[in-house]
Design brief:
It contains 14 helices and 3 strands. The protein is mainly alpha-helical and 310 residues long. It has a 3-stranded antiparallel β-sheet, with helices on one face. 24% of the residues are buried.
């Protein structure tokens, strides 16, 4: 809890000093990490293995989401974001067609996996005269059974098997599948770039997840939605275009003053940590009591210098 409170105070210091661009830039890391903390601590069974913390980075493992509707929505959102920012040929800019192409590739790869398993099991029971082939098949089988293996790189792993073409029907089946998948190289590359094992936990993805499990937390959900709106209307423009803004700019773009944004940060913080805060933590105005001693804290000194950018 303390790291979030300290970060909130950093935002407050920036606001008091009139450093509005820095103030706005810190909204995303503060809200994202707070959102991530909240969701990952709800102990939702469907999301048991979704949240991954690696040093100071927060990730979500989409493949571990048990709800298929939710999983597909996140994949679809990721693909839409990729199309928006990537330089693609016109034929790949239609999200419906591209999504269908990727699903077809997934089906072809699943079929290839089955053929690799058939070859491996056959050679495992009898590899007489084909020991080198068995080693290749065993390596391939081990790769596809590894949960961290990138399936869109599969054709790079089959090259050694190609020299055994015509040695058996099973090898020929694999080679035929290899050639079909290889002919879709552009789709493979797109899928490889937009479907990663772990994704940064952004407010956008976390909101999609939370939408499916927010029945008891509508107040918190609605506040996170408001911050997503602030992020899209003003924060991203500052981060990407390196521009300075004023209080008037914030009000014009968001419809809220910096004081009102801070109030909402305070409200969200108190909702999430209501069981951890004591009366001594709250001031007479009902907001978090500003602790000037936190300024000498080493964590605060670091946060004052570097925004937690994603």
């Amino acid at each position: 809890m303390n790291i979030f409170r300290e970060y909130y105070f950093v935002m407050k210091i920036k606001k008091i000093k009139g450093e509005m661009s820095d103030f706005i830039l810190r909204i995303t890391p503060f809200i994202t990490e707070l959102f991530y903390y909240f969701l990952s601590n709800l102990n939702i069974k469907d999301l048991k293995d979704v949240f991954i913390k690696n040093k100071n980075e927060s990730y979500i493992n989409v493949f571990e989401i048990k709800n298929n509707t939710l999983k597909n929505e996140i994949f679809y959102t990721k693909l839409r974001n990729y199309i928006k920012h990537a330089k693609l040929e016109n034929k790949y800019k239609n999200i419906q067609y591209l999504s269908l192409d990727i699903k077809n590739i997934d089906t072809m790869i699943e079929d290839l996996y089955k053929k690799i398993e058939v070859l491996f099991l056959k050679l495992k029971s009898d590899n007489n005269g084909f020991k080198d082939l068995f080693k290749i098949a065993a390596s391939l089988y081990g790769s596809i059974k590894n949960p961290t293996f990138n399936k869109y790189k599969i054709i790079d792993n089959i090259k050694d098997l190609m020299k055994y073409k015509d040695k058996s029907d099973e090898v020929n089946d694999i080679c035929n599948s290899y050639n079909k998948i290889k002919s879709k190289r552009e789709i493979l590359d797109i899928a490889d770039k937009y479907v990663s094992k772990n994704d940064y936990a952004t407010i956008q993805y976390l909101l999609i997840i939370f939408k499916y499990y927010n029945n008891n937390y509508l107040s918190i959900y609605n506040l996170f939605k408001e911050f997503r709106d602030i992020e899209s209307k003003v924060r991203n423009n500052i981060a990407h275009n390196l521009i300075s803004i004023t209080e008037d700019d914030i009000i014009y773009n968001v419809g809220l003053s910096s004081d009102r944004i801070l109030y909402k940060c305070d409200e969200l913080f108190q909702l999430i940590f209501k069981n951890d805060l004591s009366p001594a933590d709250i001031g007479e105005d009902g907001r978090l009591k500003f602790d000037y001693n936190c300024i000498i804290n080493k964590d605060i000194e670091t946060l004052l210098i570097d925004p937690l950018e994603k």
